[in-house]
Amino acid sequence: MERKIIEKRMQVFLALLIVIFLILISRLSYMQLIQTDKFQVLARENQIRLVAIAAPRGEIFDRNEIKLVGNQPVYTVSLVTLGQGDNSEVVQSLAGILGISRQEIQQKIEGQRQLYEPVKIATKVSAEKVTMIEERRLDLPGVVIDVEPAREYPEGFILAQTLGYVREINGDQLAANKDKGYKPGDMFGQSGLEAAFEEYLRGQKGARQVEVDSLGRPVRDLGVREPVSGNNLVLTIDQRLQKAAEDALADALVRAKKMGHREASGGAAVVLNVRTGEVLAMASQPSFDLDQLTRELSPSDYNKIFNSPLKPVLNRVLQVYPPGSVFKMVVAAAGLETGKIKPTDTISDPGYFFWGRRYNDWKPGGHGRVDLLRAIKVSCDTYFYQAGLKVGIDDIAGFASEFGLGQKTGIELGGEEKGVVPGPSKKFELTKNLLSSAGLRKIMELEQKYGNLMTGAVTEEERLRLEKAKEKELEAINWELVWHDSDTVISSIGQGINSYTPLQLANYIAAIANGGIRYKPFLVQKVITPEGKIVKEFGPEESGRIKVSQNTLAILREGMRQVALPPDGTAAGVFAGFPFSAAAKTGTAEVAGHDDHALIVAFAPFENPEIALAVVIDYGGKGSAIAGPAARKILDAYFSERLPQLKKQLKSKPSTQSRVYSGHLLRTEGLVE
Fold first, then answer.
1. How far is 37 from 235, CA to CA, in rounded Å?
2. Any domain includes 672
């Protein structure tokens, strides 16, 4: 019985073996006979590796087709690790040749995301080092030398902060752009226009097909798909004017230090077309060498660029400064439009104004009797202290916003700061952020208390009474939580809670010059293919029309015009001998614990404005003495090539701006009556 059971089990086992063998034979026959072509293709594909070829980035040109950023072929060194074996000797040898640390190479290898992908070790490698690698080729298996495009700067490092720079894509950028075909080692715009227009500039990679053996070692090339260059940018920038602006800033910094302003360390200048919003020049000092960022940086070089206290990578045109007296036209516009001041109103300036305490004018002894136009011309602080109190901070803030101050302009670049328009709510917010937790708790209790009381208030009189009571309790917590007349007084001359970018200041002056249109400043005229086909165009775009009458704007222009006139216009010396009539406003902005910032804003020609500019010199002292000459050099550069043409235009076309206050307009070499 037991024997029969064993025989039966053997028969079942034998049957199972036969079935398994039949299945295996059938599957093998199917694969060998029916799917032969499929597996031959898979085998061939397993022998082929695709090696990416970097695409040249699009080039960048100024408005006159002068190349600002181009490409140059450079040697790159990569390492194909194959994910196998010990490559420590190769890494050690390569580190010695390239002059970089072994640890740095090892980090790049460990960051490799995909096996068989070459790991880029160094870019912009010298021909001498390439020769050394070739001479030791047998000792350096897996080392690959390629020629790739890298950025070059034919015009030197002008416009550095605006153009921006390109470096290898970092982890955060890779994660954010994972669906756009980026891979580790790819170049990516890090700042400026390179970052803002990355999608247009990047180009399309090519690829090389390489056959490898069973160990993954390259055997032969099977062909190349050529990369496609990125699109080019044509800017609104004028290279000649840009260079003049950068030189003018550099000279101003030297002059400021010679005059004893040791802190003078940087500055900004921006020039706008008042009729379109085109940025003709955008300069920031100190600057940095963009070419350095096309290769591996030593720790010392890296610190000089990115960790320097002078912050050379910072685009100061987009950073905020206190405006000083260049803010006075805002107060004038607010007063004229609300009817709280009139052009003919006069005050006697003894050199100070007393309102609870003494507020000094910048000129000891004062300016005597002044009206609005003269107050702008000589920058009379005493006049604007009183005008500001008459107008009130709410209207001042409202008209500052009308001119676009305290708002981002919307220019293409990243990093633009917003700025601050003075007012009670902003002061409360800033002071609140400085309080202790106990102070914050008291404010919360106060807000809740008066929130309930305000809800029950029926009349306007009752609400006003509650607001005053709340202010008194806030003052008891911290005096600075509440807006006072003293805040209005100092805000009226551009001090206190007042901060704007040079770009905002230039745009504000452009709106005064062009009759009240606020344009969005822009840097790129068009994006074109390498063959010249237009991909995208940009043009004038209105941000808004200022709600200020043409008569008020004419008064503001005339006041600025007189600033440039002798004998006592604060910019008269700046514009002495200038072949056209110009309009300007100087500013000297106080900075607690530091030297003053020097500022000037201007537009020209007065009769038919074309450009507006703003110049700021950090801790440079007086605007007329330091920023003024820089502005004059920029204006001279702009008008030098167009002098005969503009003189002819101005003689044949009567001024539309001189009719309001023609009695105040003086000479400019016979161009104006």
1. 55
2. no
Stretches where the chain sits below pLDDT 70 are 1-4, 7, 12, 27-51, 81-86, 111-117, 210-223, 642-673
Q: Tell me, what CATH number does 74's domain have?
A: 3.90.1310.10
Closest of 501, 525, 309 to residue 406, by C-alpha: 501
516/500 Cα distance (integer angstroms): 19
pLDDT of residue 99: 77
∠ Cα 89 119 298 (to 5°): 80
Predicted local confidence at residue 272, as pLDDT: 98
Under 8 Å between Cβ of 329 and 512: yes
Sheet containing strand 611-617, strands side by side: 279-285, 267-273, 611-617, 597-604, 583-589
235, 269, 291 - which closes a domain: 235
CB 169 within 8 A of CB 182: yes
Cross-strand partners of 147: 75
Centroid of chain to Cα 525: 17
The number of domains in the chain is 2
CA-atom Rg of the chain in angstroms: 35
- What was the pLDDT predicted at 606? 96
Residue pair 324/589 in contact by the 8 Å Cβ criterion: yes
In Å, how far are 42, 48, 216, 535, 671 from 45, measured between CA atoms?
5, 5, 12, 37, 79
CA angle 527, 531, 536 (to 5 degrees): 20
**Which residues, 6+ apart, have CB-to-CB distance to 414 below 8 Å?**
191, 192, 195, 196
Structure tokens at 215: 């160990």
Domain-ending residue, one of 209, 235, 261: 235
Is 261 contained in some domain?
A: no
Residue 655 contacts residue 671 (beta carbons within 8 Å): no
**Residue 121 near residue 105 (C-beta atoms within 8 A):** yes
- Asked whether the CA dihedral 525, 529, 532, 533 is positive or negative, the reply is negative
Q: What is the pLDDT of residue 664?
A: 34
| H or E element that contains 594 | none
CA 539 to chain centre: 19
First vs last C-alpha separation in the chain: 136
- Per the structure, the complete domain to which residue 156 belongs is given by 49-235
Instruction: Confirm whether 216 is domain-assigned.
Output: yes
The long-range contacts involving 525-530, CB below 8 angstroms and separated by at least 24 positions, are 525/63, 525/234, 525/235, 525/236, 525/278, 526/233, 526/234, 527/58, 527/197, 527/200, 527/231, 527/232, 527/233, 527/234, 528/231, 528/232, 528/234, 529/231, 529/232, 530/58, 530/229, 530/231, 530/232
In the three-class reduction of DSSP (H, G, I as helix; E, B as strand; rest coil), residue 191 is classed as: coil
User: How many residues are recorded in the chain?
Assistant: 673
Contact yes or no for 409/520 (Cβ under 8 A)? yes
| pLDDT tens-digit series, residues 325-375 | 999 999 999 999 999 999 999 999 999 999 999 999 999 999 999 999 999
pLDDT of residue 660: 40
Q: Is residue 266 part of a domain?
A: no
